[in-house]
Amino acid sequence: MQKWILSALALTCAATAQAGPNAGGTLFLHANPSIAYTPDQSSYCGQGVGSGQGGLVDCAQAVNFVTGADPTLFYVVAAFDSGANPRVAGLTFGVSYTASISLVAQGSCADFELTTGGWPNSGEGTAITWNTARTSQLVEAYWFAGYNYYAPDPALFALTAHPTQGGQFADDSVPANLDAIAGFGTLGFDAPGSTPCPTSGPVEGACCFSDGSCAVLLADLCAANGGAFQGEGSVCDPNPCPQPQGACCSPETGCSVVAPSECTDHGAEYLGDGTTCDPYPCDPAGACCVPGEGCEISFEDHCVNKEGGTYVGDGTSCDPNPCGPVATESRSWGGIKATYR
Q1: Contact (CB, 8 A) for 134 and 86
Q2: What are the residue boundaries of the structural domains of the chain, listed by start?
Q3: Which of 159, 216, 219, 332 has the greatest number of C-beta atoms within 10 Å?
Q4: What is the distance, to the nearest Å, from the Cα of residue 120 to the centroid of all Cα atoms in its chain?
Q5: CA–CA separation, 26 vs 231, rounded Å?
Q6: In this predicted model, what pLDDT tens digit does every residue of 32-83 receive, in sequence order?
């Protein structure tokens, strides 16, 4: 199971745009000053969330502000709305913090961890997975012990997206569904922090329209505008919407079925969404003599009506050039003279 989860976390660009059970979840920091840090204890997991000593039972009660220069224990906690049914089997995140903050210890509360080379330095990241998915509204994921070297000067410790894998929750499906972390919290040392608790009610998601465009909307608004809702928490980058295609007639390469945006070669004509190359729909092409431009391969209609040129004939070529020299202007000390190129 961990291989599937790590594969999904490592290949975020291949993840489905459909939201999974962890959509809308956030990641925040909760300090627990009531627990004295000591290097004699190897792990502090199990003390950040729950009804124990200083444990957290509600996202809104998270402690995101600490003072003093002594090491403080603080936890990375995943939070989900009361109506959600999370299944957290893995996640990726990073950290960013003021240079005056010194970390003295840290540890994962999951079963497996894969970090970047400089972890836990600022700008680095980690990926963690559990053997069994976590299903509670608050999930204790990681712990740190650190202090502000220059207290009482203000400093900030922030959770961020992983520097290469982004901020993602993975469930225990095979392959794992990925949901973007909806918000990242901060912990203030002698300064205010922030706690992004998950919102209740409907969550926006990607809405696909018939022209292949995408917008992030609520499901009801998407349907009212004739769109197809891709799921709560789904995103438009990368665009999950099917792109319309049709026959594209190019005077140089003939017919191909592509999206309108790809039918951009000079003189190419897009025949419309849903059109095909069978039966062959394109007019014959040939050499076109364009005043001031020389010879190019074009369709007769494009040559005459859009380029103002002279169509030489179907199947004719620009090699050898049937159009003759092209007149240009050049300046000399003697005035303007006609030259040829």
Answers
A1: yes
A2: 2-189, 202-242, 246-332
A3: 159
A4: 24
A5: 17
A6: 878 889 999 999 998 888 755 557 889 999 999 999 888 999 999 999 998 8
pLDDT digits (tens, 9 = 90+) for 312-322: 998 899 989 99
Kindly give the pairing relationship between strand 88-97 and strand 26-31: unpaired
First-to-final CA distance of the chain: 68
248 DSSP assignment: E
Q: Residues with Cβ < 8 Å from 135, sequence gap 6 or more?
A: 85, 86, 87, 88
* Amino acid occupying residue 322: P
CB atoms within 10 A of CB 154: 14
pLDDT tens-digit profile of 153-174? 999 999 999 999 999 999 999 9
What is the DSSP code (8-state) at residue 223?
A: H
Q: Which of 28, 12, 24 is nearest to 163 (CA)?
A: 12
Which CATH code, of 2.40.50.140, 1.20.1600.10, 3.40.50.150, 2.60.40.680, is assigned to 2-189? 2.60.40.680
Greater model confidence, 108 or 307: 108
> CA-based Rg of the chain, rounded to a whole angstrom?
31
How many residues can be counted in the chain? 341
Question: What is the CA angle 157-120-68, rounded to 5?
Answer: 40
Mean pLDDT of the 176-182 span: 91
294-300: list long-range contacts, CB under 8 Å, 24+ apart.
Answer: 294/318, 294/321, 294/323, 294/326, 295/321, 295/322, 295/323, 296/266, 296/267, 297/251, 297/252, 297/267, 298/251, 298/267, 299/249, 299/251, 299/267, 299/269
d(CA 296, CA 315): 12
Rounded to 5 degrees, what are φ and ψ at 219? -60, -45
